[in-house]
Amino acid sequence: EVQLQASGGGLVQAGGSLRLSCTASGYARIFDDYAIGWFRQAPGKEREGVSCISGTDGSTYYVDAVKGRFTVSSDNGENTVYLQMNSLKPEDTAVYYCAASWSLLCTNTDMAASATVYDYWGQGTQVTVSS
Asked: Residue 126's closest CA among 49, 15, 42, 68?
């Protein structure tokens, strides 16, 4: 069974950077078959799809609020996906989750941002951006 481990969260000042990692286990070469999505959930708000990267075709997705600031990448050898977050804003404060979806293409933006199409979830990592 696929297991995902998210890490890298922390406290940072506005304008700073963090890099989140999502490492998969229980499935060799997960990116051959799965897309990895990043979601976030702030207190009192719904879970929001932030980014997605597909191993099938290399496609990516970003929600408008993070375009130009966040970059998703993968390291197949390490079975790990990264979310590089730059120019962080207080409104980026949330618990960030990674999730895996079998055969999802991230060019399908409605599905890429929908939590319902993801099969496996990691535990969250807290990101707090102070003003």
From this structure: 42
CA 14 to chain centre: 20
| Tens digit of each residue's pLDDT (9 = 90 or more) over 49-91 | 999 999 888 899 999 999 999 999 999 889 999 999 999 999 9
Instruction: Please compute the mean of the pLDDT values over residues 92-119 and round it to a whole number.
Output: 93
At which residue do the structure tokens 């590089």 appear? 84
Burial state string for 95-113 with b = 16 or more CB within 10 A and e = fewer than 16: bbbbbbbeebbbebeebbb
> Which of these, 23, 36, 128, lies nearest to 85 by C-alpha position?
128
What whole-number distance in Å separates Cα of residue 94 and Cα of residue 45? 9
Question: Nearest 10 degrees: CA dihedral of 86, 101, 1, 84?
Answer: -10
* Rounded distance between C-alpha atoms, residue 90 and residue 108, angstroms: 29
- Classify strands 10-13 and 3-7 as parallel, antiparallel or unpaired: unpaired
At 32, the pLDDT band (50, 70, 90 cuts) reads confident
Q: Is pLDDT of 118 > 90?
A: yes
